[in-house]
Amino acid sequence: MNTQSTNLKTMAGIGYRHQIGNQIMQNKHLFDCLEITVEHYINPFSSPNHSLNELTDNFIIIPHGLDLSIGSISIDRDYLINIKKISHQLNCNYYTDHLCITRSPGIKFSHLTPIIYNESYLKRITANVAYVQDFLGKQLVLENITTPFNLEKNEMSYFEFMSNLVKNTGCGTLFDATNFFANNYNHGDDTDYTLENLSQLNIVHMHLSGGFIQNDRFWDSHSEPISDTVWELLDKVLDSVKPSSLIIERDDNLENTNRLFTEVSIAKEKILKINKPIKVL
Fold first, then answer.
1. Mean pLDDT of 83-111
2. Which residues, other chains included, contact 204 with Cβ-Cβ below 8 Å and sequence gap of 6+?
3. What is the pLDDT of residue 150?
């Protein structure tokens, strides 16, 4: 089994999608790691091309969840049991999901719902993160999501909220550069302030993806090539942080894998500057 526990270099890979599973296996030399969506392995009606055993025999695998709902009043224990089994099998030293809400008592949402950045939610999510990390026995790493609008009840910025959560719990950040760009483009969020203070977010993992602009809004569709602006944003992020891993996401327009796999190669080139060994004088 591959393991990432002693890997000190930033890895670059791709989000595993069953539609291109065979192409990924045929080109496994291109990827340092893969990211799987854990719900595809919990759901008995899902049909991924390759089993977890097949994937772990060939790749370092990072688990990524959609339905933890860290902002909810309580965490679903049955769901935690399922993701703990998968996370343990993958031998990954962290688990990733989103800083959001996907359910409330008796109701499951069909999307990632933003939380309110205030002291009440910070207290609730601090307790939830501590509980999840204790249950899983590993670090929880939370992704910044795109938001349709800024909530009026916000008392602080995303950066202020997340840096406090990191300080309170020791959790990590999954920094999705495309989501960050989208929120800045759509809402005018303070890009420069956040980029200057990225080290306080404890960035462990990163996502990059492509979208499109329509009606003066950027849509993070995971269907297009990564834009030059997002590549430039990645360069700025890598100037100040060294994540453990970087994943290219694509959920649609998967026919041209050559273009998609080339983006992984571009990412590997960009992380060379932070993977160069330090000379000891």
1. 91
2. 94, 139, 141, 172, 173, 174, 243, 244, 245
3. 78
Contacts of 115 by beta carbon, 8 Å cutoff, 6+ apart: 71, 99, 100, 101, 121, 125
CA atoms 235, 241, 247, 249: torsion sign: negative
Q: Which amino acid is at 42?
A: I
Distance CA 205, CA 243 (A): 5
List, for residues 202-225, the tens digit of each pLDDT value.
999 999 999 999 998 999 999 999
Place of tokens 């327009």: 253
Taking the C-alpha atoms of residue 114 and residue 134, their distance in angstroms, rounded to an integer, is: 24
Q: How far is the C-alpha of 143 from the C-alpha of 237, rounded, in Å? A: 15
Contacts of 218 by beta carbon, 8 Å cutoff, 6+ apart: 181, 182, 185, 186, 211, 212
Q: Lowest mean pLDDT of 5-9, 177-181, 236-240, name the range.
A: 5-9
What is the rounded CA–CA span in Å between residue 48 and residue 26?
16
Asked if 21 and 49 count as a contact pair (C-beta separation under 8 A), the reply is yes
Q: Are 178 and 235 in contact (CB under 8 A)?
A: no
- pLDDT at residue 178 greater than cutoff 80: yes
CB neighbours (10 Å) of residue 228?
Answer: 8
| Backbone φ, ψ for residue 5 (5° rounding) | -65, -25
Q: Buried b vs exposed e over 144-183: b needs ≥16 C-beta within 10 Å?
A: bbbbeebeeebebebbbbbbbbbeebebbbbbbbbbbbbb
pTM of the full structure: 0.92
Residue 35 and residue 14 in contact, taking contact as beta carbons nearer than 8 Å? yes
